[in-house]
Amino acid sequence: MKPRTPWVWIPSLYFAEGLPYVAVMTISVIMYKNLGLSNSDIALYTSWLYLPWVIKPFWGPFVDLIKTKRWWIYSMQLLIGAGMAGIAFTIPTDFFLQASLAFFWLMAFSSATHDIAADGFYMLGLPVADQAFFIGIRNTFYRIAMVTGQGLLVMLAGFLEVRTGRIPYAWSIVFLVLAGIFILACAWHRFILPLPEEDRQRSGVTPRTILRDFVSTFVDFFRKKGIVPALLFMLTYRLGESQLVKLASPFLLDGREKGGLALSTAELGGTYGTVGVLSLMLGGILGGIVISRFGGLRRWMWPMALSLFIPHLVYVYMAYALPDNLFIINVCVGFEQFAYGFGFTAYTMYLMLFSDGAYKTSHYAICTGFMALGMMIPGMVSGWIQEMIGYQAFFIWVLISGIPVFLTIPFLKIKEKQAGK
């Protein structure tokens, strides 16, 4: 077969990778808020959905053992589409919470498995010389998926809520649209993905050999020098953000009598899902530029950690001032997300450097598992904390939660020569 240009499959593949993650982690929060759940329930239930990404390293090796990565990609997209259709049909029911959470769990496990297969296929389906160039392309389309999910689809839900007056109906339509996107994505990738020779089911590999390699990978990871401060850094770098991200949307949606800003669903889609995500993208791009061209991670670790910490003050300001000017709210959210994108660059770069070695891919997966764990556990209790102390004190608590990571940074071993410096 004639080789297919990467332009016909990489953009759609990484758009399909980003969209279910946004649906599980962000759209679910907004939907449950509009359907009347308390902040403590929203934070608890949706934080549990991080679990598939936490334990992803445990079943990643079996993706290599069973079938091809190409098969896993379009099969998981079909399951994701089925999960989204299931949510759409159960939202109007009396048991919507239990049923929708079950389908969100299906989507979460399918999405985490899809991530493993897609990232592996990326390395198999592209010549090594092209992989560096298309990293920027794949990240761009992942961010476009975030804008589509948090922005356009939330705005669609808001429009339908106002137009019909039926909140469950509005969200059912949104998830039917998502289901349709993934059914089309499954058909598209079944047809268009290339057939690299290396993407084949491995022969001579048994569950026993996979288990042996799996154990040696974990043993090697926990024998790395500086493992204790590294793990503490992974778990605390986003400690404040892990709680803020679960309550930002409820805060923007809640009425002023509850201490919120009383935005409509459509306004939230424009502010948090569009302005916020675009600012996040720009911050990440700037972060990558300054690390690569102006001194490396060792020089920028402290400034980037501070950029993740200090901008939380804008939520303290909004909780006390309760601005009603949408422009001011957009500036505040955009600034916080831009700074978050800038600061998060240091985190991802550190994980890459720490993972370097014989098991680089597997060790990076383990690092991302700890990253997800650091988001899941604090997020689970964030709603309960907010309801106990209110939004004003909660955002001060978020600010305080950003302090522990600064105690770990002096003990980190940053060996930038591993990145080719």
Briefly, what is this?
With 421 residues, the chain is mainly alpha-helical.
General description of the model:
The chain folds into two domains: 1-205, MFS general substrate transporter like domains (Growth Hormone, Chain: A, Up-down Bundle), CATH 1.20.1250.20; 213-410, Growth Hormone, Chain: A (Up-down Bundle), CATH 1.20.1250. The longest helix is centred in the C-terminal third of the chain and has 42 residues, at 360-401. It contains 17 helices and no strands. It is mostly helical and 421 residues long. Helix 1 (10-34) packs across helix 11. It has helices at 10-34, 39-48, 51-54, 56-65, 69-90, 96-125, 128-164, 167-192, 207-222, 227-236, 239-253, 265-293, 296-309, 313-321, 326-355, 360-401, 405-408.
Features:
mainly alpha, 421 residues, globular, Growth Hormone, Chain: A, 17 helices, 79% helix
Write the layout of secondary structure elements.
Blueprint: H1 10-34, H2 39-48, H3 51-54, H4 56-65, H5 69-90, H6 96-125, H7 128-164, H8 167-192, H9 207-222, H10 227-236, H11 239-253, H12 265-293, H13 296-309, H14 313-321, H15 326-355, H16 360-401, H17 405-408
Fold-level CATH name of the largest domain: Growth Hormone, Chain: A
**Class from secondary-structure proportions:** mainly alpha
Domains counted in the coordinates: how many? Answer: 2
| Major sheet | none
Classify the beta-strand content into a percent band.
under 5%
Which superfamily, in CATH terms, is the homologous superfamily of the largest domain? MFS general substrate transporter like domains
What is the class of the largest domain in the CATH system? Answer: Mainly Alpha
Please tell me how large the radius of gyration is.
21 Å
By DSSP (H or I, 4+ residues per run), the number of helices equals: 17
The CATH architecture assignment of the largest domain turns out to be: Up-down Bundle
How many strands?
A: 0
Overall pLDDT metric: 88
Shape: globular
Low-pLDDT sequence parts? none
Q: SSE order, as H and E?
A: HHHHHHHHHHHHHHHHH
Distance from N terminus to C terminus (CA atoms, Å) equals: 40 Å
